[in-house]
Write a structure and sequence with these properties.
This protein is an alpha+beta fold. The protein has 2 domains: 107 residues, no CATH class; 82 residues, no CATH class. It contains 8 helices and 6 strands; from the N terminus they run αβαβββββαααααα. It has a 4-stranded mixed sheet with strand order 1-4-3-2. The protein has a two-stranded antiparallel sheet with strand order 5-6. The protein is globular and about 55 Å long. The two termini are 34 Å apart. Pfam families: AbiEii.
Length: 199
């Protein structure tokens, strides 16, 4: 759902990421994110190693590089059952795409879902990660389809605030985002400061 998904959806091999984010559906087998994390580390130690992230142990894939070097790629696993405060992790309501990568089906969230989350996350965090989110917004705009539920910001105050903040800092995105996102409260009242129009 993060940088790896942006890379796959936008066909941009230059979009690098340090980790892979997964959202899984908990079915009758009750395989939660925590259970999957434990299973990967205990059952596949030659493929996954433990990494301490903010006091929690997560699995990291042992990517073998030319010359025998190994790079650990962190795998962050989420599920809606464990994160009920994040309704966007509910796979039964989220729009997804299935891509074929090296002959294998790979499910990813839709460009519209990721665009919404990137607009929100650039607002919630600061520094280099926020800048990466903004570049991802720029990459995803052309792939997003207007009129989807994910791009209806008109009923969520936090999404409105995130969009307003993005446009305040990046007024050049206004026209492209207006074509994709439904948010009259922002777009009907939005104007670019004169200084930004002359830049």
């Amino acid at each position: 759902m993060g940088g790896a998904a942006v890379c796959l959806l936008t066909h941009d091999p230059n979009r690098r990421t340090e980790d892979v984010d997964l959202v899984i559906h908990v079915d009758q087998r009750q395989i939660t994110a925590d259970r999957l994390t434990t299973q990967l580390l205990t059952s596949f130690p030659s493929d996954f190693g433990p990494v301490n992230q903010f006091g929690h142990i997560i699995p990291a894939y042992r990517l073998r590089l030319p010359g025998g070097k190994e790079q650990l790629v962190e795998l962050e696993v989420f599920d809606y059952q464990s994160w009920p405060q994040r309704p966007q992790y509910n796979l039964q309501t989220a729009s997804r795409r299935t891509l074929t990568i090296n002959g294998y089906p790979v499910k990813t969230f839709s460009p519209e879902w990721i665009l919404r989350e990137k607009i929100l996350s650039q607002y919630q965090r600061q520094g280099p990660k926020a800048q990466t989110d903004i570049r991802d917004v720029e990459r995803l705009i052309i792939f997003a389809v207007p009129g989807t539920p994910e791009l209806d910001f008109s009923h969520t105050e936090e999404l409105k605030a995130a969009l307003a903040d993005l446009l305040k800092n990046w007024p050049g995105m206004q026209q492209a985002l207006k074509q994709k996102i439904n948010c009259p409260a922002i777009f009907n009242n939005w104007y670019a400061p004169l200084s930004s129009l002359s830049e």
